[in-house]
Design a protein that fits this description.
Elements (H helix, E strand, L loop, with lengths): L3 E7 L4 H15 L4 H22 L7 E9 L2 E8 L26 H9 L2 E7 L2 E9 L2
Antiparallel strand pairs: 1-2, 2-3, 3-5, 4-5
Length: about 140
């Protein structure tokens, strides 16, 4: 059984397939329910995509560290990058009731991560963005 995921990659286009493969292996080896696996993949892929697309904007791609583990009936994940400071927990929730043409572009992915996670936190630590989440195994 996989104890967890602990990988460090370059935050570029090649990161997502590696992350997806690691997540699939983690879900299969830990026999997580399909719903948990789907939610985990959605959360991590959204966060990784944001780091790849925006975290190192205007600079060479830097490191991206992903850890995922099981802890007391929960999946716990952390992503760390050295990109520009960005606190996704401080983003205003999008108006999902507004008409499509009136909606502000962006922010829906972070909103989904926030609502799908049991706990979603951010901190800036020694020049690094540290985003963590928890979700129940259900």
């Amino acid at each position: 059984m996989a104890d967890g995921i602990d990988i460090t990659l370059t935050a570029d286009a090649g990161a997502l397939p590696v992350v997806e493969s690691a997540l699939e292996t983690f879900v299969e080896e830990n026999e997580l329910p399909p719903r948990t696996g789907y939610t985990l993949a959605l959360i991590v892929e959204e966060l990784v995509t944001n780091i790849v697309k925006y975290g190192y904007a205007g600079a060479d791609a830097g490191p991206l560290k992903l850890t995922v583990k099981l802890d007391d009936g929960r999946v716990v994940g952390t992503l760390v990058d050295a990109g520009a400071p960005f606190d996704p927990t401080a983003m205003a929730a999008p108006d999902v009731e507004a008409e499509m043409e009136e909606r502000r572009i962006g922010g829906l992915g972070v909103h989904l991560v926030r609502t799908m996670s049991e706990d979603f936190t951010y901190r800036r630590d020694d020049g690094h963005n540290v985003v963590s989440f928890r979700l129940p195994v259900a």
